[in-house]
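Record pair follows.
FIRST:
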Amino acid sequence: MDFSWTDEQILFRKTIREFAQRKIQPRVREIDTNKKIPQDLIKEMAHLGLLAPTVSKQYGGAEIDWILASIAAEELGRADISLAIPVLYLVEAAWGHIFNSYATQEAKQTYLPQVTSGKQFLGIAVTEPEGGSDIVGAAKTKAEKKQTNWILNGEKIFISGIQESKEWGGIHLTLAQTDPTKKHRGFSFFAVPLKENTTTTTTLFEDMGRMGISTGGFTMENTALPDNHLIGKQNQGFYYAMEGFSAARVLIGATCTGAAQAALELGIDHIKNRTAFGKPLARFEGIQFPLAEHYTNIESLKLLTYKAAWTMNQMYQHKKTTHHDVALGAAMSKLRGPIHGFQVMNEVADWLGAVGYTKEYPIEMGIRGIRSYSIGAEGTMNIMRIIIARELLGKDYLPY
């Protein structure tokens, strides 16, 4: 076993860290306050190949593997503790991969060069108003084939990038029933554009965190899509969605690793320099012992996450693992990432004292942002536990 990084990985991390710390980190408060990622940062990310980097080079992607994709996610999380830019990154990296793998050639040529250049947005739309985690049982969005078009009706909610898609253009990979009699085997994926689409209406929510990227929903009323906007095979959409969720969960683990490291480094700097009763805070065991626990938790999260990324590489590049292996590793990374990340940030806020409750320090942005990953993004904590138990016990013991 070799836990060292390759020369390529070291150079890649160095490049991303230098960019993120120099260009992104100083502007995080601006992003959080203005509720928008500046276009100049989007352009610079595109120049570095950080927008949908898992996409093929022929469409402007960097075609990086999942370890490199996780390194980028970690470094973006370290720089943007509010997690807005990391959300933009991981959504496009994970779901760009799915679109690149299964969409029609015509659809890929239409959208992917625009996404990788930062001119359009690519997102995911699965959740519906009556069932967040119950993708199959509560889904009401339907797609019906009429001549050469698909007609979609239904509503998606709690979706990232609604405003970006409306302003920039682009697509959301949208799950819809195409054969209700087949349960999870009767769903298909479609590329749904929101900009200048008169048959969709959008809604925006104001989140508590990750303010730089929008959240909302859209309703489709007889939305007509050409047949080339069907992604992959008909009735295979559920499986594509599960594949995409696993990829996103690994990147969430990496993002949480970076954000947690940034928070802990902030805390370490504070406890070394802040004194109480004539001593630096760092001399007190009441500070040292939690520090030791949190550092160990971050290291364990890092190992889980990069093992999951390695497992994905083994599946995609070498066919040596299965999606069951990937789903297990991804779920463990997603289960631990938001929990450990939040615990670190909460602890550091305690170390900071009253100033930790102000906007003088970025820790409050991190606390607000990282909660999105445990509350619902790419699956709740209990859904991760169900996935892990499913892979350990088998499908005969599923609770649904």
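SECOND:
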Amino acid sequence: MVKIIKKLTSGYIEESYEERKHLHKGKPHKPLTKFVKRSVGRDDLGHISTRHKGAGAKRLYREISTLDQFMDVEAKVLRLEYDPNRTANIALVELTSGEKKYIIAPENLKTDSVISCSEKAPKRDGCRSLLKNIPVGVTVYEVQMYPNSTKYLVRSAGSSALVMAHDAGYTLLKLPSGELRKINSESFASLGKVSNSDHSNVRLGKAGRVRKMGIRPSVRGKVMSPAAHPHGGGEGVNPIGLKYPKTPWGKIAIGGKTRKLKNSDKFIVKRRKKKR
């Protein structure tokens, strides 16, 4: 649910926030937090390596687990929390051993719910199971790239992948981008859909909120000088004078392929559709 803020001055656009009444109001679980120094777009010498980054509100990093390392384990949900480092909400769970962990919370997860991680986990939101044991037509998230991997797909707010088929030791998934990809059926995945699906409907409303996110202002190339940008120069409103938009360093800005040849390309059955 999105909460809309009334327009105060002409400087505001319609501003909105995510509804967080159901989330924990206190501080995070301290043993699972740490300070991470951000590069803010600078390299080891202090030079700008990525533009438009800097400042931002201070925030502690929450260490997220997936329960994959704890086979045949159950966990009780203690509370749901806001995480300033990611778009999805997180949940603090307590294992049967008494150990506490943070996980990415799915939609419809409630406090005091019990989730589990095993080869054949119950078909409940938040439970983790092997892909080969998940029926066709079920939505999943936080999918392992390959068995025993620490790399995962589908973790952003409101996203989910659809199990399309099982064949020859692989599971065919339809990813949120529309891409069809084969994943090893021995990989783990969580059932359900990632929480906070209204995140994409939030309107920031003013420049100050963007600065708190650590994003510095960006300037259009058209208003720069010719020495500073390929689009620069000219008087008044004029075209860029090029076949296609370029970066300040002369590379294609829109439509150019940037993905390098990877070994995992052979698992892509159908690539995502490009946005027009």
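COMMENT: The chain has two domains: 2-199, 221-268.
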